[in-house]
């Protein structure tokens, strides 16, 4: 009987994880629908985008602990591989997608900004579901987020500056205000009030995704008149960008000799972006249309992440039964 409890608990956690990952896109789609059908009143909320982004990053900070950063010293190589891949593969893939699909300037700049954003917080749940290295996932997300005030503006200026004017200095200051300070504040509050925060932890992902849904509603309201004409092109760009990122992330981890759990985590971390942040920055520094790829990415990467996790778990089941089963992505 002693062996049944952990299995039951694990199964319950798996169900909760899948429920969250699959419901998150539904909530974001609902937000986008509200923004589209009620564009005029929702567009008046544009001034709330930055404060809402601060809320999202504050909730991320509340989930962090100092031990999450200790992995940098214990296992620096996989952390380095993942973070470097994050800021090399996704920006490069974004440029490739803009060229392949011949995207118009505003959409090209928006796709590139998504590629230059740090890893998304939902990647931690997906890594757990894919039986990846969850501790590594949390550390990679945290490190890429803390590097965002430097890396995101510089990469965006370099790669997207040819399509639209980019004020990298102002963007860096905004990211410090909206990302770095709220994350640090959340981390400190968890250190000071651990019991209170522990009680709130189950609610935080839902608060985060509800906030992102409002951000998406505002973003969509700003480009509602062009959503239908640009929608399929944006979706194609987002899907291609995400798939390339996950495939190359997995490949880099495999080429550097990382175990399967780390390969899966790097694939997820590289392919899943902080699209809420990208949407807010695009709306503020580019245009409403440039923010559309980030809004679509917010929906798609959760769905592709859930599918990847299912493929990973199926592979593990087949291996446990002794049947040959290739990994979901090539080695």
TrEMBL record:
Which Gene3D superfamilies does the entry mention? Answer: 1.20.1530.20
Does Electron transport count among this protein's keywords?
no
Q: How does it sit in the membrane?
A: Multi-pass membrane protein
> Which key words are in the record?
Membrane, Transmembrane, Transmembrane helix
Q: What is its main location?
A: membrane
Q: Subcellular localization, per the record?
A: Membrane
Does the UniProt entry include the keyword Transmembrane helix?
yes
Cellular component per GO? membrane
**InterPro entries, per this entry?**
BilAc:Na_symport/Acr3, Bilac:Na_transpt, Na+/solute_symporter_sf
TM regions (residue ranges)? 18-39, 45-64, 76-101, 107-130, 142-160, 172-193, 200-221, 227-253
What is this protein called in UniProt?
BASS family bile acid:Na+ symporter
The species this protein was found in: Naumannella halotolerans
């Amino acid at each position: 009987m002693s062996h049944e409890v952990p299995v039951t608990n694990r199964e319950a956690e798996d169900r909760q994880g899948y429920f969250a990952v699959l419901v998150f896109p539904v909530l974001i789609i609902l937000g986008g629908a509200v923004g589209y059908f009620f564009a005029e009143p929702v567009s008046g909320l544009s001034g709330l985008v930055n404060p809402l982004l601060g809320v999202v990053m504050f909730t991320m900070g509340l989930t962090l602990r100092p031990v999450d950063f200790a992995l940098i010293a214990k296992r620096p190589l996989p952390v380095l591989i993942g973070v470097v891949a994050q800021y090399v593969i996704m920006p490069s893939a974004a440029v490739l997608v803009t060229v392949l699909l011949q995207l118009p300037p505003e959409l090209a700049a928006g796709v590139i900004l998504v590629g230059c954003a740090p890893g998304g917080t939902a990647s931690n749940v997906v890594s757990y579901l894919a039986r990846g290295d969850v501790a590594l996932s949390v550390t990679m997300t945290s490190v890429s987020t803390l590097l965002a005030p430097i890396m995101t503006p510089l990469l965006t200026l370099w790669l997207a500056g040819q399509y639209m004017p980019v004020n990298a200095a102002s963007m860096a200051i905004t990211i410090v205000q909206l990302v770095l300070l709220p994350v640090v504040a959340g981390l400190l509050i968890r250190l000071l009030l651990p019991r209170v925060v522990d009680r709130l932890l189950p609610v935080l992902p839902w608060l985060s995704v509800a906030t992102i849904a409002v951000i998406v509603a505002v973003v969509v309201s700003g480009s509602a008149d062009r959503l239908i004409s640009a929608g399929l092109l944006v979706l194609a760009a987002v899907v291609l960008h995400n798939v390339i990122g996950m495939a190359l992330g997995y490949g880099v981890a495999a080429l550097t000799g990382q175990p399967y759990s780390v390969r899966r985590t790097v694939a997820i971390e590289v392919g899943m972006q902080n699209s809420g942040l990208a949407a807010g920055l695009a709306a503020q520094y580019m245009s409403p249309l440039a923010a559309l790829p980030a809004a679509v990415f917010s929906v798609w990467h959760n769905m592709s992440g859930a599918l990847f996790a299912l493929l990973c778990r199926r592979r593990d089941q087949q291996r446990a039964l002794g049947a040959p089963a290739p990994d979901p992505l090539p080695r």
